[in-house]
Amino acid sequence: MMGEFSDGQTAVQNEDTEENREMTLEELFADLDGILADMNDREVSLEDAFSLYEKGMRKIRLCNEKLDLVEKKMMVIAQDGAEEVFSPS
Fold first, then answer.
1. Which listed site, 20, 27, 70, 74, has its alpha carbon 20 to 30 Å from 9?
2. Each residue of 3-14: pLDDT tens digit?
3. pTM of this prediction?
4. What are φ and ψ of residue 3, in 5° steps?
């Protein structure tokens, strides 16, 4: 994974492709595990570590949004006992 950060343009293109499609929580968690593993590598440069940090923070934000949506759906179900489709504002 570190190799993709040696060329800034390649890293940006890869992130754009990943973020343009809806990722599952499992995929986001797997990506975060990979990012953490790369950041723990003693060979990673400071610039690459910062890029990994930014990418990880974006993934964490996406995870939080997905979990918030699930929580809101569960609240709708719990209030009246009927399953309703929740549409985000």
1. 27
2. 444 444 444 445
3. 0.61
4. -60, -30
Residue 26 CA: distances (Å) to CA of 6, 15, 43, 47, 51: 27, 17, 28, 27, 22
- Tens of pLDDT, residues 39-83: 999 999 999 999 999 999 999 999 999 999 888 887 777 667 776
Half-sphere exposure of 49 (CA within 13 A, CB side): 8
Q: Are 63 and 28 in contact (CB under 8 A)?
A: yes
d(CA 25, CA 63): 6
Question: pLDDT category, 1, cuts 50, 70, 90?
Answer: very low
Rounded Cα gap, residues 23 and 32, in angstroms: 12
Position 80: which residue type? D
DSSP string of 8-24, one letter each residue: HHHHHHHHHHHHHSPPP
